[in-house]
Amino acid sequence: MKKIIIAITPVIFILLLIFAFSSQPYENQDITPWFASLNQSTLLNKLFSWISFTYAGKEISVSALGVAHFIEFFIRKASHFTVFFFLAFFTIRALAYFLANKKWMVMISFFIVICYAALDEFHQSFTSGRTPLFEDVVVDSVGGVFGIIWYLKWKNKF
Questions:
Q1: 53: helix, coil or strand?
Q2: What sign has the CA pseudo-torsion 133, 137, 142, 143?
Q3: Could you tell me the CA-to-CA distances from 41 to 56, 65, 67, 77, 115 in Å, in that order?
Q4: Are residues 82 and 91 in contact, defined by beta-carbon separation less than 8 angstroms?
Q5: d(Cα 50, Cα 11) in Å, to the nearest integer?
Q6: Mind listing the pLDDT tens digit for each residue in 91-146?
Q7: SS3 56
Q8: Where are the transmembrane segments (predicted)?
Q9: What is the DSSP string of 83-108?
């Protein structure tokens, strides 16, 4: 029983962490003031000036956003990826205590990740300054896939 509680605790912690961050308005999470001085950096402007793409119908480039918001964009998406990586990793690890079939463990873990990613984005629609994006659900899901793969590789190693 103690092992099951130890296995489930990180999953619950990550779910609560995601919920807490999604409850905060963007203004409380804005990290661009830390990078404000970077907007004057000619080196960073030149280094990243060739990067330009569309994400959720918005141009992502240094010229469109400035260096600070450009860097913040990648930090935010990396955070999405990382937190859902760990959610999937710890979810499949917890399911291993209840299921012997790896296929079911993978499918249920991925289902939980996708559902929570979608719920997280829906939850953000009620938070000021936050925008629910389908693209973020995709980033979260990709992070989850990598978390599941990492768990399976890690499990086979030990």
A1: strand
A2: positive
A3: 27, 14, 8, 23, 41
A4: no
A5: 39
A6: 999 999 888 899 999 999 999 999 999 999 999 999 888 889 999 999 999 999 99
A7: coil
A8: 78-98, 104-122, 134-152
A9: HHHHHHHHHHHHHTTT---HHHHHHH
